[in-house]
Amino acid sequence: MAPTSILQDQLERQRRKAEESDAKRRAELLKLPYLDVISAQTPMDIKALGLLTREEATKGLIVPVQVNQQTLSVVAFSPTRPEAKAALTRLGKSYTVRLFVASKVGIDHLLSYYDYVGTGDHEISGRVEIDQAHLAEIQVSVKSLTDLERAIHEFKSPLTSHVLEIVLGGSFALRASDIHMEPSEDVSTLRFRIDGLLHTVVGDLSKHIYQAAVTRIKLLSTMKLNIHDEAQDGRFTISLTDRDVEVRTSVIPSEFGETVVMRLLDPLSLTVELASLGWRADDLAIAREEIKKPNGLILNTGPTGSGKTTTLYAFLKYAWRPEIKIITIEDPIEYHLDGISQTQTDEDAHYTFASGLRSILRQDPNMILVGEIRDQETAEIAMNAALTGHIVFSTLHTNDAVGAVPRLIDLGVKPQVLGPALSLVIAQRLVRELCPACRKPRTLGSAELVAMATFVGELPNRVVKAPYANPTVFEPVGCTTCGGIGYRGRISIFELFVVNESIEQAIYKNPTELELKALAKQQGMTTMQEDGALKVLQGVTSFTEVERLTGPIPWLPEGLRPKQV
After folding, report:
1. Phi and psi dihedrals of 97, rounded to 5?
2. How far apart are CA 153 and CA 426, in angstroms?
């Protein structure tokens, strides 16, 4: 550091020290608590900040910083100033005011947060209005990740909200489910999750734009703006002409700043028609038959992001009719379903999956959705509900369908209860669909055709073989329709483990997972990998996608095996 800079830094520290000493002295004279705003990293509450306009706060050198029920914390340079007195009188009519005295530099620091609030009430409501003309313009101009990168680099507006509009508008145009913002030492990265995979949009986002965008996101999500060393969660809503899109925001501290992930819950992306999820005809017939039963537990298994909740929502929509009652307990409610009573867990109110399920059973439901079975208590209540005249839907984290049985036994469920209660276990993954506009067929050799025919011939009898008699295998290319990726959209691959009488008898003996798999295969179960391979033979997806999610396909000839990168 140059000598001049060192001297300036020392003078600045001395000036700040003098200002803080003066503020402390004034606080003692007024018999009010003193607050060192900057050193204390005073948390900012956006709702509180909005109780005074920027003009009122600036004239009175007074800033509301936190509101807790009816108590409002306010920081002032001098509460004896006429403008400060007027503001305190007005605020005192609605709140019990806790007043603090701060330095001028501290007040200026707090006033700077008005840069992100703007002038209208809508700016602090947790709702962002994207100009429809601007959104339409973005969606027309952004056809690929490269287009969006160019739009962000050419961004010239001094308003941070505009760059956020470009990012959000681009996310709709490219059908992103999540937006990732990751800081590094000199520049930052913006990535979109599209059809399950992350793609870099901008790898050299300037620190200025990044920090301004993060502050804007925290503002909209009603987070504490000037707290940077704690994880925070929030949400806001994007108002569009035809729908509202909810955005769930997560901010965590990292080495070079705050990392942000925004999940976009767009109603248009939710497919809740059971027949549209990618079922084979035989699997769909089984699923429909199980839903029609008067009681039983239907589980959907798989990792986070595999489409479990969407499938269960589709079950509920298919089963709903006016003469039955369906209640859910979720964490959180992802989408709202007409005609169905949906509730959300709340740890602070002691409304957990287990306690909520107990309460739901007193509401006389016919069908119940429990977001996830995580512990023995929830599992046992769900089993008892399934045995006493209810259809219960839930999810479980296992790698495959058969693995649900040992997992539940490990949780403490007795095999004597599990066998009669469990009706159906589904395992599910989401594979990317080849873009129909640019996919290209590949030539198949005789050895490859023989391998495919052998695979199809060995499938269970319930699988209709005719559609796979003359397969065509396609490869991804990339075009403007799919944004140059080669894939557009996702479809489910399924594995159904039906608990019939012989499986129930086996569960009583606490079998190993291998024993259950062998028995399930004898009963005609088709694995997720087999279901995925059949979708490849129909031209829906690629072997690369199926192997990415289910592992190597043992019968696949070398010529069709995806090349390792």
Report:
1. -95, 125
2. 45
